[in-house]
Design goal:
488 residues; alpha+beta; Glutamyl-tRNA Synthetase, domain 3; two-stranded antiparallel sheet; 12 strands; elongated
């Protein structure tokens, strides 16, 4: 959900200002590569109607070849790996970065020693002078190690005791002292791939990105990114860091575990992880894509009015990063259902009937479309999801096979059955039947609930007049006789 919301805000901002929304897959961390994730992202965006202006080819795959539509291809960073080393080497030559030759064992030893002294080790201006890098080694040894080793990295040389001043559209002015920051790895010889920091700065520059809108988990990286733009002498884009989506109860970031515990999805679509773990999706749970988009838009953004229901175009017109809050947005699963219910009510009965037909077919029911449409018109105010239609009104399409035991014991008693049978057999409509019961001065509730139980299998449900209008008098009599055979 958080990733889709970030994409949505980027999309809304781009459309509001006549810009382009670009899709780029950042897959330079080979340890975090997940098979199928790229296709999942694209399908999620397609379902939500958040389609990129640039980044996809005509077959809805990530573009690898340059074209008029995709002038900055390829858009998969692993396919751009040949670009980044030159920029990393440039930073070394200009004195903004250096080669680091420390092995994993050496770094682990440094961490352990710092921990033993009650400190936390970070590779920084305070520690790099005692480590194996091109700042401490002779030039000849550096040249030899670059040639013979394949596990070295290029790290950014964080300046000492400098106040980095930054501006964020949402957070405002921010200042951080560089002495608190570590010398991040920018490029790795082992796989010849950059880290997120270098790849994004280079690609954002080459792709002419004007605004970077991302989650607040990237806020600690902003000082490094500011300094990288400065080191390259490039104009910076504007940054906006979005608030977190928070748990419905308690504190902390919303997680899949919260959804599993409370019974709601946190993924836009059903996701099956490589280990076989399956996560529910909003699409498969029956949410409309426009309802899902609407609820996401309101998680962190406030239009400044009482309006809550927005079409995509209305969101574009109303959206402003200045109206995005700084604090986290608590997710409310009941509010999510409310949005879907509102969107269901706005849909025509014809549209909803088309979506209900497959549900009926899955239950082995075939019905005339106009009948389905009439049923939907009758019950849609009671439903939150299209699937609810079956739960609400299945007995309009098939006779009950079972009866709620406690309802049968309460209402399907011999004395009630005799009155109910006579009322059904003596009249031709529900309205006439009610009048007949009144004329006999019989207890209306007992008689009608007895009839309802026979027609629906329980004492709750739609009005008997509506039920009989759909199933007809003959079917009503047949169901009553069947109930007598089974319950008496």
């Amino acid at each position: 959900m958080g990733g889709v919301r970030t994409a949505l805000y980027n999309y809304l901002f781009a459309k509001k200002h006549g810009g382009d929304f670009i899709l780029r897959i950042e897959d330079t961390d080979s340890h975090r590569f997940v098979p199928g994730a790229e296709e999942y992202i694209i399908e999620s965006l397609r379902w939500c109607g958040i389609m990129p202006d640039e980044g996809l080819d005509d077959s809805m795959h990530l573009a690898s070849e340059k074209s008029e539509r995709n002038p900055h291809a390829p858009y998969r960073q692993s396919e751009r790996k040949g670009i980044y080393r030159a920029y990393a080497e440039q930073l070394v030559r200009d004195g903004y970065a250096y080669y680091a030759f420390d092995t994993a064992e050496e770094l682990e030893k440094a961490r352990a020693e710092a921990e033993g002294a009650g400190q936390t080790f970070i590779y920084s201006a305070l520690t790099r002078g005692g480590l194996r890098n091109s700042l401490t080694l002779e030039a000849s040894e550096v040249a030899s190690l670059l040639e013979s080793r394949t596990d070295w990295t290029i790290r950014f040389k964080m300046p000492t005791d400098r106040v980095v001043e930054m501006d964020d559209i949402i957070r405002g002015h921010i200042e951080v002292n560089s002495s608190t920051l570590d010398d991040k790895v920018l490029w790795k010889r082992a796989d010849e791939l950059p880290t997120y920091h270098l790849a994004n700065i280079v690609d954002d520059h080459l792709m002419e990105i004007s605004h970077v809108i991302r989650g607040e988990e990237w806020l600690p990286s902003l000082p490094l990114h500011y300094l990288l733009y400065e080191a390259f002498g490039w104009e910076r884009p504007q940054f906006a860091h979005l608030p977190l989506l928070l748990k419905p109860v308690g504190n902390g970031k919303l997680s899949k575990r919260d959804g599993d515990k409370m019974g709601f999805p946190v993924f836009p679509l059903r996701w099956e992880a490589p280990d076989g773990t399956v996560s529910r999706g909003y699409r498969e749970d029956g949410y409309f894509p426009d309802a899902f988009v609407n609820l996401l838009a309101m998680l962190g953004w406030n239009p400044g009015t009482e309006q809550e229901i927005f079409s995509m175009q209305e969101l574009v017109e109303a959206f402003s990063l200045e109206k995005v809050g700084k604090s986290g947005a608590k997710f409310n699963p009941d509010k999510a259902k409310w949005f879907n219910k509102e969107y269901l009510r706005m849909r025509s009965s014809t549209e909803l009937a088309r979506e209900f037909v497959p549900v009926l077919e899955a239950h082995g029911v075939s019905a005339a479309f106009d009948t389905v449409e009439q049923v939907v018109e009758l019950i849609k105010e009671r439903a939150t999801f299209v699937a609810d239609f079956w739960d609400i009104a299945w007995y309009l399409f098939k006779s009950p096979e079972e009866y709620v035991e406690k309802d049968a014991a309460k209402f399907f008693k011999a004395e009630n059955v005799q009155m109910a049978r006579e009322a059904l057999e003596s009249t031709s409509s529900a309205e006439a039947m009610e009048e007949y019961i009144r004329s006999k001065e019989w207890p209306m509730g007992k008689v009608m609930n007895c009839i309802r139980l026979a027609l629906t299998g329980s004492s709750s449900g739609l009005g008997i007049a509506d039920i009989m209008r759909f199933i007809g008098r003959e079917e009503a009599l047949a169901r009553f006789r069947r109930a007598e055979e089974r319950l008496l």
